[in-house]
Amino acid sequence: MPARSHHWRTESSQQPGPPPEGIPPQRTPAPLRFALKALVLPFMLLDLVVQKIIQTLSPPPYKITGGCKQRGHCCHYILMQWPPILDKWPWFRAFWLWWHTDIHGFYSRGFDAEGPNGEVVKVMSCRYLQKDGRCGQYPLRPAICRQWPRIEFTSRPHLLKGCGYQILPRNPPPSDDNTISK
């Protein structure tokens, strides 16, 4: 599985169009997708609360400032980590793909990328992005969307140009202007 690292880092404010073959249809009926998302939602929210508590007790080295400009940049380039276990167990790979494409509504952009730590990531887009840049499934959006932009403890966060957020070190080094000389 080749990894490409430069295609998803857009320097343009232009949004990519749908794949040439069109957005693949979801096979799972909408009522079942809704029920599965609603069933998982409390567990996902509990997990996010625990993550927030851990980040409060042990802050990561970077902080995010600014706010979302609702341009949909992050919805066009969703980086889904491809765990190595998926290559070992075909049934788990099938479930992973079904969950992210049929239930969450993501579809492949047609290429893989190299993540910040050298891991393979699937580059996907969301079919629920509306023309005005808002999410058509906002109350039941997946954790990856709720956590954007995600701050990791092991690497510097990456942002897409024009999203509205900025990355700042939590404890910046003192500048020469602020140091007191004797």
Low-confidence stretches: 1-12, 178-182
Largest sheet: 3 strands, antiparallel
Average pLDDT for all residues: 81
What is the 3D shape? Answer: globular
Number of strands: 5
List strands and helices in order, with pairings.
Blueprint: H1 30-57, E1 62-66, H2 73-76, E2 78-81, H3 85-88, H4 90-103, E3 106-114, E4 120-126, H5 143-146, E5 165-169
Antiparallel strand pairs: 1-5, 2-4, 3-4
Protein described:
Strands 2-4-3 form a 3-stranded antiparallel sheet. The protein has a two-stranded antiparallel sheet with strand order 1-5. The chain has a domain at 59-171. A hairpin with a 5-residue loop joins strand 3 (106-114) and strand 4. The chain starts with 29 loop residues before the first helix and ends in a 13-residue tail after the last strand. It is built from 5 helices and 5 strands, in the order H-E-H-E-H-H-E-E-H-E. It is α+β, with helices and mostly antiparallel strands and 182 residues long. Residues 1-12 and 178-182 have low confidence and may be disordered. The chain is globular and about 55 Å long. 30% of the residues lie in helices and 16% in strands. The protein has helices at residues 30-57, 73-76, 85-88, 90-103, 143-146; strands at residues 62-66, 78-81, 106-114, 120-126, 165-169.
